[in-house]
Structure prediction request, 90 residues.
Amino acid sequence: MTDLSQITSMMDAILLPLMGCVTLMFAKLCHGETARWAERQFFAALVVITIVTLRTVILCDDSWLLHTATLGTMTVGALVIPGYDSSLAA
Prediction:
């Protein structure tokens, strides 16, 4: 039987990378005023993923590679994946 610490570590390893990838795609697929809101959400998620990645690397947690890969994917994806021009939203 799993205890609470195992459940939270599994959710940490699954939900945070999923959240990061979803916010990246949402920021790239939206346009207009929604794109500005989605970009703010993406930057907030990027800050959270960065802090969690630092924590997992410092503590030598088992999910450090997954969090590092998610942070890299979010950073490179923000630069490589083409998106709509949100500056057109007035």
Q: What stands out?
A: The chain has three helices and no strands. The mean pLDDT is 85.
